[in-house]
Write a structure and sequence with these properties.
It contains ten helices and no strands. Helices cover 80% and strands 0% of the residues. It has 222 residues and is mainly alpha-helical.
Length: 222
């Protein structure tokens, strides 16, 4: 088909955007989790406010705030040398998606960490392990198994949510679909886009089932 290469290009943009934002969001979620669980009330409330905002407002609103809202501060951003970043729709989309998924991942991880039995921490302390080693070697690996399925759901939601970046001129899969439709007025363009989204989601779902089986095989009865 004439628009096949454009669809493949858009698919690549979608996958890259989701992969980068999920990875960066995972890194950002760790300090947010530590802040949320901190005994320092200021840190805890700041982290809570961050999570509350990004989980409580629509992703499209957040994208508009970053792309159009920060874009209105062009002179200020130029003065601090950041305009090059915010003038690019791709960068704004990546920043927005990273901030959004970090909030969700932080809550997933926090719940998973809190689900690890207290005895694990006490056992590590009894062995004289430093707190940070106990966390990364004992608590976190167990928490990640609990968090695995919610993480998979979050990635699927991000794949589907990524379609909104077409609104700010990022030519992802939906952006290329809209462009093709504007030239052909053929509704089948959207059917093909829907099929590609289904393929992505189904492939990820199967990958996650395999990954979960691999990581939890020691928990299953022989």
């Amino acid at each position: 088909e004439k628009y096949g290469p454009s669809f493949i290009s858009g698919l690549g943009v979608t996958l890259l955007l989701v992969a980068c934002s999920i990875t960066l969001g995972a890194v950002l979620s760790l300090p947010i989790v530590f802040a949320r669980m901190s005994k320092n009330k200021v840190l805890s409330w700041l982290a809570y406010g961050y999570v509350y905002f990004f989980r409580g407002t629509p992703l499209i609103t957040q994208l508009f705030l970053v792309y159009y809202g920060l874009g209105s501060f062009r002179p200020e951003l130029q003065s601090v040398g950041l305009w090059w970043f915010f003038r690019d729709a791709w960068n704004c989309a990546l920043l927005t998606f990273t901030l959004n998924t970090a909030a969700y991942q932080a809550e997933i991880l926090r719940g998973a960490i809190q689900s690890v039995p207290r005895g694990q921490r006490e056992g590590a302390a009894a062995l004289g392990l430093p707190a940070h080693i106990a966390f990364f070697k004992i608590i976190l690996p167990q928490a990640m198994i609990v968090a695995l399925r919610p993480y998979g759901n979050e990635i699927i939601l991000m794949i589907k949510g990524s379609a909104i970046v077409a609104i700010v001129t990022v030519f992802d899969l939906m952006g290329e679909t809209r462009r093709a439709f504007s030239r052909t007025f053929d509704y089948q363009m959207y059917i093909w886009a829907a099929v590609l989204y289904l393929v992505m989601v189904e492939a990820l779902r199967n990958l996650w089932v395999w990954l979960e089986d691999r990581l939890t095989r020691h928990l299953k009865r022989r």
